[in-house]
Amino acid sequence: MTLNSFEQANGNYPLAATDAALAESAGGHVTVPVSYDAVILAGFGGPEGQDDVIPFLRNVTRGRGIPDERLEEVAHHYRHFGGVSPINQQNRELQAALQAEADRRGLGIPIYWGNRNWDPYLPEALQQAFDDGHRTILGLATSAYSSFSSCRQYREDFANALEATGLWGQVRIDKVAQFFDAPGFVAPFVAGVVDALRTLLADGVDLTGTRVLFATHSIPTTDAERSGPRDVEWGEGGAYAAQHLAVSGVIIQRAIATLREEGADVPDVEWQLVYQSRSGPPTQPWLEPDINDAIAEHAAAGATTIVMVPVGFVSDHMEVMWDLDTEAMETCEEHGVRGLRVPTPGVDPVYVSGLIDLVEERLRGTAPADRVRETTLGPWYDVCRPGCCENVRAGFKPAISGLEP
């Protein structure tokens, strides 16, 4: 049997953190019930005051040697909003909503919350769960797609938390798979696009001049190429781009079909996957096109309206508030086009219910054929495949819920 990477690196820990997951996952899916007794919601974290901003950014960029002067160039996004990222409060609300839904279903499972980059940190959440008597934990990351930063790094975060707390071998942690095409994640975006197009129709807008831009966080092309399993040919942008393209296609098709069923005369609205929030040196290739460049190009080609769909994000955190609601909207104004932005799932009851559906799938060991997904790419793997989502800069580090490396 293949051990997980932390165990191989240390050599003296029993197969306790992911044993059943590994043993039952020849096809990548766990098909036996697992009696998880707690869930840990894993977030990115964000500052909650001006004094937090630079320390938070140091955490985000740890190990890269970036001086505070350069961090301050990014800090102004947070300082514009009083030094407060909305992400922590959003996760407090999500944690409460998830707990309420789990309780409503009688699951008897507590929901903890910990972050990668700011208080409350994941090791604290894990320690609290352990102190409360929980030993078999399911991790739920606040990210729906496959890449190093959106999947494998959370797997590493859980492994780091086990190491930091000294609980390796005493606590088992598995992880909910990528949920980019789960119904509860997709439905709020469909509803948002429908509402945006309804608004335009009510205003007498000709939708032939409307462009729907599905926006997600850009990542280095080298990271994108390594996203997803290595034994599948994903094409340009790897599994990261493939997942976004697949779900964006479903969202626009469902939205147009909904309006037509209501009797609206709606054309096949043009859409595009675009990227935002790139960072790093200009010489490093990142996924393109940038949303601002795309807006300018569509405006020059005659577009009159831009509908922005933050399909890569689960809540209205800083990248949505600054890069879309501020910069992209300013770009729309500069080019004389109307801009609308669709909401993220946030704590939409459909989204919250959908996340608990994913937890129940793992509690029950639901067979892949019985898991409802909205694209042909899903259901995604419960246990990550060998070589999945390598960190190009640092290589493979200890990570839970995956096969070697």
Automatic annotation (TrEMBL):
* Enzyme Commission identifier(s): 4.99.1.9
Q: Which GO terms describe its molecular function?
A: lyase activity
Q: Which PANTHER family match?
A: FERROCHELATASE, FERROCHELATASE, MITOCHONDRIAL
- Keywords of this entry: Cytoplasm, Heme biosynthesis, Iron, Lyase, Metal-binding, Porphyrin biosynthesis
Q: Which pathway features in its UniProt record? A: Porphyrin-containing compound metabolism; protoheme biosynthesis
Indicate the family of this protein.
Answer: Belongs to the ferrochelatase family.
Residues that, per the record, bind Fe-coproporphyrin III: 85, 154
Q: Where in the cell is it found?
A: Cytoplasm
Q: Which NCBIfam families match?
A: PRK00035.2-1
The protein's job, in short, is: Involved in coproporphyrin-dependent heme b biosynthesis. Catalyzes the insertion of ferrous iron into coproporphyrin III to form Fe-coproporphyrin III.
Q: Which residues bind Fe(2+)?
A: 217, 319
Say yes or no: keyword Amino-acid biosynthesis present. no
Chief subcellular location: cytoplasm
What is this protein's name? Answer: Coproporphyrin III ferrochelatase
This protein's species is Microcella humidisoli
Q: Which InterPro entries match?
A: Ferrochelatase (IPR001015), Ferrochelatase_C (IPR033644), Ferrochelatase_N (IPR033659)
Q: Report which reactions are catalysed by this protein.
A: Fe-coproporphyrin III + 2 H(+) = coproporphyrin III + Fe(2+)
Q: What is the lineage of its organism?
A: Bacteria, Bacillati, Actinomycetota, Actinomycetes, Micrococcales
Keyword Kinase carried by entry: no
Transmembrane regions listed in the UniProt entry: none
